[in-house]
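Possible regression after last week's pipeline update?

I re-ran a chain I had predicted before the update to compare outputs. Posting the input and the new output here so someone can diff against the archived version. Not blocking, just want to make sure nothing changed silently.
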Amino acid sequence: MRPASIVNFERVVLLLLALSAIAVALDWDRQVQAFRPIANGSAILAVAVAIMFGAYLLLMWLISRRRSVVAKWIYVVLTVLSLAATLPQFLEIGDAPLVAAAMTVVSSVLGIVSIYLLFRPDTRGWFGGSDDRLA
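New output (post-update):
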């Protein structure tokens, strides 16, 4: 049986992805403009969002269903990098629609919560560690 922290991790990641999808949709035009100098902004943004969502879903599945320690650490690194990349957006948050800005903030908090859940004591056994270290 999966530990409560792993079940909650899965739920938090799904909520994070749902809020992120809504935030991207609400702020689509402004984000497309940021990619226009590179090439067709809409296509690049759509591909980037699809790859990001696919990677997070795959990592979530590997962590919560397959007990992968490697996926856990990849998830942690990607989430920290994602949070770091989001920091400059907080300076421009006034330019984004209010709802999209709020969802970005909530998604960032959920990212931190998801990492926290992976390191709770009840997850040690899930990832193959010994529960004896808790004593």
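Follow-up from reviewer: compared with the archived run. The longest helix spans residues 41-64. Marking as no regression found.
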